Amino acid sequence: MKLTTLQDREMSKKVDCVITQSEQGKKVYQNISTIKHTPTTVEASQLEPVAVQDLSADTIHTGRVLIVQTVGDAHISSKDHYNSSSSFIQLVISDGDVTKLDNVLVVVVANYRLPGKGPIQKEVALAFPAGVVLAIKEPNVVQNSNFSVVHIANPDDDIEFIEDVNHCHLVDRHADWKESLAARLPKDIEGWRLRGNDFYTQGRYGRALSCYDLGLAGFDKDHSILQLNKLAALLALQRYHECIPLGLILLQKLPQEIKVYARMGKAYYALGLYEQASDSYKKLLKISPKYEEAVLYTKKCKERIEERDNGIYDLKSIRQQAKSTSENPFEQFVDCSEYIGPVDIIQTETMGRGLIVTRDVPLGTLLIVSKGVGVLDQEYKEENMPGLIKQAIKSNPLAKKQLSVLYSGEEDVAKSKNINNNKNPTTTENNVNQTYLDDPLSQIPLDDERIQRIIRYNTYHEYEQPTCGVWPIPSLINHSCLGNVTRFLIGDMMFIHATTNIKANQEIMANYTCRILPSYAARMSWLDEYFGVKICHCQLCQFDQQDTEISRTARDKLDSVYRHKFTQKTLKLVDVPLLENHMRAVKNTYRDKEGRQLALDLFSPLTAIALAYQSVDHHKCLDTYFEILRVTGITVDLSDAENRALTLSQTPIKFTTTCPQKPWYFESIYTFMHLAHYSFIIKKVMQARLFLALYRLASNLFQGWSTQEQNIHKLRTGVDKKLLAFNDTIEFTN
């Protein structure tokens, strides 16, 4: 199906319709703003040209590029005339004779960042002046009620400005374009420098880089000033790997130029090469001892090295960084180093690759701190994550290699088995990032479809928070409903701790569902839909699998009944008998009706009973929370607390208790806090202090909260500040 154009109208009417009438513009935007299109990172020169006449409506022209010239200045339109951030740009473009309507098309550009230093319309006209030649990559054509438009949602990736008269896609029929283009372009290297600097000042770093490259290619490839400016543009574009070789060339020519050292330091720092970054800044300080940025980043390099080598982090400071960027869903990053603890990569018998610990680690050990790829607010995930990931792998070869070996479906696993690879990768604690870079999976092209599958099977969603993304090293951790590690996010960094003692060479397992999903059917359905996990071999699932299909189906129905009857109401004492009847019905579906271990189907109704008792019977409420511990498989030895003399002194006590044989859950945080709270109310102070210590540890492992942050949160929920004044600790015994 070809485009629907306005051949029954005059050209002037067409231009007036799409440029000057803001209401029509709003309608166009509303119709196309929901279109999802993953941007390409392929250069326009590598795509096949397509003519306007050959475009099809409601089609994304994958692998094609539209070479066009703008007709008249661009025009700004807005859904909200008082908010420029909701504006979009309208262009009229042509790829030939503008008097022939078949050659003319409307383009709507969303998400274009203007400098914001002058009137919006003037800045738009400067960004897209009349006669500028554009390469629109993989044009997304959308049919409106009256005509078709090209929708551009990612202008930084989807548009290239052609400023080279020898561009491979400027053919004979573009002779007049070449002539006008040549007339507008600089005639010497200084002109290219000034033009590039102007774009750089506007924040158009890609266009600035193009100008510097054209100046270097056309006049003097060794021009130091243009190379220095190119280094700045590459840095602004976050193409850090390309900064290093260029910076080394410049250092040979300009050994006293502080800008080279500063830019090299930033590039090394962004790549996590902190020793090299520190060395660059120290050399800079020898030339300019008071250079503030060098002083600051020399200190930061020391902090990052301490984090990377020893796993020592200031979580409160990191969380404050994340809050400062939380207003922008595309800047969820924090400044801290990655960390790989006593961890190794293995090939499992049934679940592909996995991670193990290389030595015995106790509960609470920090195992991994990992930086995510494509991290952003979950609201924007579907549309923008593929583009962010493609941009990341374009600028960071290591990220590309890490992502390329992640699970992307059984079809790719089957393909990888046919690839000959004689290398046997090995790892140590310090080179996990280098492991499996020669894995057969890395040789399968990382195209759009595979990126989408990698996102499907490896995206991590933070519970009750909008953040999501892909974390390459943690993505190698296999699933168990009884995982032995916990994960929490601060910005784009994931922190992974052990939630029980883990023996050397034991596999690290994480609960992909993040929270307790009591029903076996609900767990497996969720795991299959989001991660392609079709079976789990954990003890909980083994118990469920031993029951009959009829019993499992009955429990699933009971869980649905519970959620329908009790989750949307304020629970009262009269509800307790109903909840107890529900629990008896659940127990009757178990093979071992009374002695069932890990009876997680009882977790929700028990929690509801505790809520019903909380204001009328504190003893029964406390007993109910102890029962919650039991059904979730967690045992706590209270003998140390019971044998200690009562003391209200705030001097910290180190309680001892046996290490849990079953891992903690996220919900354990609240269970421990409730046990502390109600124990304190009924005057069991030492028991309350022990459970408070357990709560503090669990909150730190599952949330990364400091004692101060815990106290602030719990004071708001009504916990006695006298209880929160205690700051005791826990030591586990085997």
UniProtKB/TrEMBL annotation:
Keywords: Repeat, TPR repeat. It comes from Cavenderia fasciculata (Slime mold). TPR repeats lie at residues 258-291. Pfam families: SET, TPR_2. This is SET domain-containing protein. Residues 328-513 form the SET domain. InterPro entries: Gramillin-biosynth_MTr, SET_dom, SET_dom_sf, TPR-like_helical_dom_sf, TPR_2, TPR_rpt.
